[in-house]
Each structure stands twice: as structure tokens, then as C-alpha cells.
Write a structure and sequence with these properties.
alpha+beta, 2 helices, about 40% helix, 2 domains
Length: about 120
């Protein structure tokens, strides 16, 4: 699996370095140094597993908190009409870091469906 390198702000880069040190200490104890002779493949697997779970949790928390906010009116505008949120459905999104669950708002326009798909010649006609 390949990860895209991203330029982080100095604050984010510094915090990631601190978190990495803390994770090493939790995983391998003491100073966070794996026992001599530990295969690099084992160190890599542990690091990727922790990194992936951090990424998944970050995404899941972000969409959970986003779902608590009221959508802006502009996001509910369609063909000059404002849709009303009627419910939220939980959806599962497959990401490279694992499955992320989120509430996806479902909205409805007061006008009838044909306003979205006007009568007339069909797509294959």
C-alpha cells in the first residue's frame, strides 16, 4: 500500500512526531525501542496498522461531528428551491484505512420529482 506524502504545517508535523514517540512507548514499552532482532516487516506492520487506525478514527470523528451541524442553506438548494432534511441514514464508506461509518442526511424537495426529470424525450430516444 502506498501513502501520499502531504506537506503538513510545522505544528502538525511536530505533534505527529510526539504521537509517534508515544505510540512506540506504548507498543514496545520503555523507550519505545523494539527488541533487537525484530524484523523490519514487523515494525512496518505495526506502524501501518496504528497509522491506519489513526486515519480511520480521524475521518470517523470528523464526519460524526460534521453530522451534528446543520447543513448550510446553499448545500440544500436545487433548481431554485431549498430542500428540507427529512432524516439521516447511516452509511459505511470503504477507505484505504478501513470502514468509516457516517450519518448521511436525506433531503426532499417540496415540489414533485418531475421537476428534476422533466417530461419529454427519453435518454435512449
Amino acid at each position: 500500500m502506498s501513502w501520499t506524502n502531504t506537506e503538513f504545517s510545522p505544528e502538525v508535523a511536530q505533534r505527529l512526531a510526539v504521537m509517534a514517540r508515544e505510540m512506540r512507548q506504548l507498543v514496545w514499552g520503555g523507550e519505545g525501542v523494539p527488541e533487537w532482532g525484530t524484523l523490519f516487516a514487523e515494525i512496518e506492520a505495526q506502524g501501518m496498522s496504528i497509522g491506519g487506525e489513526l486515519a480511520r478514527l480521524m475521518m470517523e470523528q470528523a464526519v460524526e461531528e460534521q453530522a451534528q451541524e446543520k447543513p448550510p442553506e446553499t448545500s440544500l438548494a436545487c433548481q431554485g428551491e431549498s430542500a428540507a432534511v427529512i432524516r439521516s441514514d447511516e452509511v459505511s464508506l470503504q477507505t484505504p484505512a478501513g470502514v468509516v461509518h457516517r450519518d448521511q442526511p436525506q433531503a426532499r424537495l417540496a415540489k414533485q420529482r418531475r421537476d428534476f426529470f422533466p417530461s419529454g424525450q427519453g435518454a435512449g430516444d
